[in-house]
Amino acid sequence: MLKTMKAPGMYIQGYNVIDEFATHVTRLGKRPFIIGGKTALSRVEKRMLPGINIYDLECSFSVFTGRGTKKDALDLSSRALSHKADVIVGVGGGLAIDTAKAVSHQTDLPLIIIPTVASTDAPCSSVALQYTWDHIIDEIILLKRNPDIVIVDTRIITEAPVRYFVAGMGDALSTWFEANTCNLTGAKNLANARPTLAGNAIAKLTYDTVMQYGESAKMAVDLKIVTPAVEMVIEANCYLSSIGFENCGLGAAHSFGIGVGSLNGTEACLHGELVSFGVIANLLIENYPFEEIEKVLKFCIAVGLPVTLKELGVDDLSRENIQFAGKGCFGPGSNLKNLSFDVTEELASDIILAADALGRRYKDIDK
Fold first, then answer.
1. Could you tell me which residue, 339 or 133, shows the higher pLDDT?
2. By the 8 A CB rule, do 312 and 274 touch?
3. Domain 162-366 is in which class?
4. Which of 154, 204, 205, 328 is the most buried (most CB within 10 A)?
5. Whether residue 52 has pLDDT greater than 50
């Protein structure tokens, strides 16, 4: 049986670790091409500069203003080559990180990722999403390798709006349930192999960490402070979840997130917010014990994750609209094939309605 384990070359997490950026860059090169959103770069550039000057790095900062399209990546790749870059650096959230990954892939240069939010498990993975102009998944790129270095400054993460931190927990909640699906069915991971013991242990640790420390961590991030609980959840969001999903496989939660995300009104939703709703749908379609479903629902409500379609911006609950979402569950990125039974569009639609009804019931109970 073929098993694989993938991970970034080095994961660095701590308070003010961005100040050591230049030290880590020199492991890979001297001419970094740095891609980031305007806000993200404004939060880190000044703290990078002292080290850049000390090590005499020849940097090119490129403000990312695109939509994560193939054209964005091609344009930036051309600029990186013109700079004669020897390492690509991605700074920011999902779009900037995915685009930096695509540039690294196209130029075959080493990659450093510096997330400024802990909203997804994208920083450590060897997966990059590319989108159409209207933000529909266009292509899923499987990179040759994971990022060479990932630098996570806990101070920077906690200074970002708490919504991003909470969304990261929503994404991380899915990791173990989807890994468990693949374990039961024998589905393969993203490297077309079976997971190692370490991969499965990390997937389970992701869930346990978020459930145990998530509520306390959220309260601390509300105050813009870093506590041990915050550090644990940041690691779960950014590192553990990434290792878990990539090495164990995906299932229903992300597929339902994709389907619901195809509905009008969800345009402003974060990835983890859609996935958290997908987790409830995942538990329902795989018929988990109700005690487990209730536990996850109550956690989501406690930290502010959406559990109803209305919270995701969907007002039209007509059968026709929900059937559109059910069909969307089978779009690019779907992994419903990994379940132990055949899922139809009708069943997917029914599960979305059931998840919404359950969420509304518990929101009413909590009022």
1. 339
2. yes
3. mainly alpha
4. 328
5. yes
DSSP 139: E
Domain 3-158 belongs to what architecture? 3-Layer(aba) Sandwich (3.40)
The confidence score (pLDDT) of residue 366 equals: 46
Beta strand segments in the chain, E: 3-4, 10-14, 32-36, 60-63, 87-92, 111-115, 127-131, 137-142, 149-153, 194-195
Instruction: Retrieve residue 190's tokens.
Output: 């993203």
Number of residues written out for the chain = 367
Q: What angle do CA 69, 75, 79 make, to 5 degrees?
A: 145
Q: What is the CA radius of gyration of the chain?
A: 20
> pLDDT tens, 347-359?
999 999 999 999 9
The 10s digit of each residue's pLDDT in 172-215 is 999 999 999 999 999 999 999 999 999 999 999 999 999 999 99
Sign of CA dihedral 78, 81, 85, 87: positive
CB burial string 317-353: b at 16+ within 10 A, e below: eeeebbbbbbebbbeebbbbebbeeebebeebbbbbb
- Contact of 283 with 253, CB cutoff 8 Å: no
> Distance between CA atoms of 108 and 313, rounded to whole angstroms?
40
Listed in sequence order, the residues at least 6 apart from 245 whose beta carbon sits closer than 8 Å to its beta carbon are 121, 125, 174, 175, 178, 179, 190, 203
Residue-range domain boundaries for the chain: 3-158, 162-366
In which residue are the tokens 């490297």 written?
A: 191
